[in-house]
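Subject: Predicted fold for Phosphoribosyl-AMP cyclohydrolase, 132 residues

User T.R. writes:
Posting the sequence so we have a shared reference for the thread.
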Amino acid sequence: MTRACEGRYAHPMPDSRETTLDLDPKYDAAGLITAVATDRNTGELLMLAHMNAEALKLTVETGAAHFWSRSRAALWKKGETSGNILHVTEIRIDCDQDAVWLIVDPVGPACHTGARSCFYRRIEGDRLALVE
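User M.O. replies:
I've generated the structure tokens; pasting them so everyone works from the same file.
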């Protein structure tokens, strides 16, 4: 949107992150950005994790998903020990650059439990049920 269009809209001009093609991730107070990974072929949501600037940089450079573990306070390459690597085919960032979408070719299950996706259960009332 240009300044000429500003008067036509009830909301203020968007942040420059929303209007330029400059990569400028908006990390939270802990220096993290949310990342989701989906299977390139099926579209299935595989996992949600967090990235710091180094994890995002390594993912872009290597084509393998890297994340920041909040529980271990450490950088990790997905599949480094299990072999269940996420080969990144495309990286998208949302409109205000505070979330990343990794489109991947997974090698093996994405979840540390051995499930194909970390989202293998659904909420039914006050209980959980396995997704078939």
